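Morning!

This is the sequence you dropped in the shared folder:
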Amino acid sequence: MSIVFAKGLKKYYKDFLAVRGVDFEIHKGECFGFLGPNGAGKTTVMKMIQCFMPPSEGTLEVFEKDVLKYPSEIKEKIGVMPQENNLDPDLSVEENLMVYANYFDIKKKKARERAEELLKFVEMENLKKSKIEELSGGMKRKLVLARALINDPELIILDEPTTGLDPHSRHNVWDMLKFLKSQGKTSILTTHYIEEADRLCTRVAIMDTGKIVEIDSPKILKEKYGGDLEEVYLKITGKKLEN
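The structure's back. Tokens below.
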């Protein structure tokens, strides 16, 4: 089943063409990655998929629904882990999840049960009464991931999920994302960490200057071009991928 289908997808910001007619399809159960430097168009594509901004041209369907016609129905089935830790500092760890559950009309009893499940999943059940300022960077990222899962989404959007984390915290988040993948969840990941894409993604779309220049599994790309995924990126784009 196709979860996301894009054909000739473009996005203009006034006269600037940020996404230049990309084609891709994401299947149920995949972890699909967009790999590229800042400014490649990755985040813009993600925002169109999550119905945060409309496409300028082309076709974009999520759950076989047109994003321009059915944004509300699509948003109900999506969980988003944004690049920034936009948690409410005035609320506790648990309250951040409970308040977010309101956006999906989840009843209070169910929301509390779901929050407890998710805090256990991200190994933060002992911190539910803690304030956000008391959390480390890694804990904040794990809480943002838990929040993205509060509505038990069919599609999880992960925008640079481990940016700014130390290696231990990064691997911790990777383990959680691998578990979600093993449970059959579909996810879309943007990253500029080569190792992250290599470890997590079923397939990657390599982007440069608003275009997709190659799509395939990391394994096939490495076999096709030779070397590791970083060398593949260099051969395809002529650029190094800067963190």
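Headline: The longest strand covers residues 2-13.

More detail when I'm at my desk.
O.
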